[in-house]
Design brief:
It is a single chain. This protein has one domain. The chain is 4% helix and 52% strand. It contains one helix and five strands.
Length: 92
């Protein structure tokens, strides 16, 4: 179409913005799940600070965010960068 803008499924966030990422929503426990505590296990029942560097949209029309954050386990941390649903991301 003449004069129409081309749709772009990715939008960079430059500079990256600080966000909160709800790991409990991203990694939910199954319903009625019972498990024993694991000392040194990865902490996913929390909200962590991170950064967003891109917004995206899937073929099905779902909005997603490209975020970086750290997972904690025991006394250590591991960097993570991945696409997540926008529902688990909150700008700060």
């Amino acid at each position: 179409m003449a004069g129409s803008k081309q749709f772009r499924p990715l939008k960079r966030v430059d500079p990256p913005q600080h966000v909160l990422i709800d790991l409990h929503a991203l990694y939910p426990a199954p319903a009625h799940h019972k498990a024993d505590f694991v000392s040194g296990g990865i902490k996913v029942n929390t909200v962590v600070e991170g950064t967003i560097s891109m917004w995206g949209m899937t073929e099905e029309g779902f909005k997603i965010a490209y975020v970086s954050y750290e997972l904690e386990f025991g006394r250590d941390k591991a960097p993570v960068t991945q696409w997540v649903p926008v529902e688990v991301v909150k700008p700060i």
